[in-house]
């Protein structure tokens, strides 16, 4: 449950639909190839990209959640 809350908060910070359905839809519709870093993905606005970069550089709890999102965007969908 904690991961969902944190992922929800990340989506809220990014200005995205933070509902469970919205998170699932975003992940399903925005798959990342293994050779594209989450920051380099073309799915973000400049502001979102900057926020994600700052979260990753903080190397704190937010970095863990961004890493979890990155993994989710690459995980098999079936």
TrEMBL record:
Q: Which Pfam families match?
A: DUF2789 (PF10982)
* Name of the featured protein: DUF2789 family protein
């Amino acid at each position: 449950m904690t991961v969902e809350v944190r992922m929800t908060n990340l989506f809220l910070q990014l200005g995205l639909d933070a509902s469970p359905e919205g998170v699932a839809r975003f992940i399903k519709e925005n798959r990342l190839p293994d050779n594209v870093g989450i920051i380099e993905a073309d799915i973000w606005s400049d502001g979102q990209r900057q926020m994600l970069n700052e979260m990753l550089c903080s190397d704190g709890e937010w970095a863990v959640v961004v890493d979890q999102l990155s993994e989710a965007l690459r995980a098999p969908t079936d």
